Amino acid sequence: MPSSHKTWTAKYFFKEIKGKAVCLICGTQVAVFKDYNLNRHYMTKHEDKYRNLSDEEHAREADALMVKLQTQQGLFTKLHTTRNAAVRTSFVISHKIARKSKAFSDGEFIKECLLDSVALICPEKKAAFENVSLSRRTVTRRVEAIAGNLELQLKNRAADFDCFSLALDESCDVRDTAQLLIFLRGITAYFQITEELAAMQSIKGTTTGNDLFTEVNACLDTLGLKWDKLAGVTTDGCPNLTGKNVGLLKRMQDKVTEINPVQKLTFLHYIIHQEVLCKTVLKINHVVDAVTKTVNFIRARALNHRQFVALLEENESEHGDISYHSNIRWLSLGKVLKSVWDLRDQIQNFCEKKGHDIPELSDEDWVADLGFAVDVTALMNELNVKLQCKGLFVHEMYSAVTAFMRKLQLLSSQVKDNILTHLPTLKEATRSADHLHKYSSKLEALHGEFSRRFQDFKTLESEMHMVSSPFNCSVKMHQAMFRWSSLTCSLTYFW
What we know:
Nucleotidyltransferase, domain 5, 5 domains, 5-stranded mixed β-sheet, 3-stranded antiparallel β-sheet
């Protein structure tokens, strides 16, 4: 501050704040920082009160007013900071409530827990936590604001996409309302990839290909995506999506053809869905049905369940309980089969005491089939878990599938020769040559089913190989436009 301004502070009680002269007594702002303007304000408003003060008293009074102003400013800054922190905390907690699919009214319970905790840990901070608003309506507004911001971010990113692909899934919820999920993956010229749930559309009426196309078209319009940038679509293979004449995919290809007659979309079936469907050729229903019946006998009755758990604890079993099998989740089947195999002796003894005979557990053929089913489902579960990893590209997933298919060929030949190193559960069972021949045939059939169901991916092997190993591909395999683009772009952009 210039020395003249310091003099005016002591003389007229004015302070320069953000380029303007502010009276320390009444807070009035004077636009022009000149002696005449400050003097006129002082003489008009405050001269009667301070006329009898000496120069030293004037200076002390000015200092006191300055300290008072700084205290007020510090208080306002602290309040502003505290309020900002409270609002941010409210947003963070609301976001977590939405991510975990909790009821919005849980925010009030969370705040109650926060206040009780802070009262014990740091009581002096309790007032700050009381400012965090987590009422049901507040959480609703916060989630709506977050959703709007995420949609805006997705629109901004979508504007930079060079191309994009869609994954579509249509199914009914518990109220039989059709829900169409639209997943989006887009890539920019600088290989920045965005993968996000673009929309979940509720369809109240029919779900024909035309109805689904209308919803997809509306989603693309909302995000500002152009049809000519669509590269491929992945579905679960249901008829209203894949119909040749009026299915959604046919409508989408027709829409793209209207814009660019030479552009062909790539249509694929979910890899994980295909992998689960392949299990039907194993023909292990006689094993699954018997296991499900046995597990339900134990779990469906509370007394049986308690007594069985007590039996396991008494025998210090590795398993503390036995799980239900959900027909929806393929992964649960492998876990149930494994637990029944490990507990087959305890299960048989328990059921005999209850007068519930399970003849399959005494049948060597069935027990051998159970051991084979345990090993095969474990292998398929391992593949399933690999395919569920985030951030995978199609060539990485297809590589995992082809590796599994080679593993099936190896296992089939080894089983014929009674080499069961990779099938440890079957190795424990009593088996005959007929068993080994049957299991070898099942593995061959499983390999054949994988080959059949993944034919659409096999047609794209050369393109996937070019993406995964570009320097191991022959130049002749590359399309002309790829060769031309690589020759014309700069070295900095290319690398």
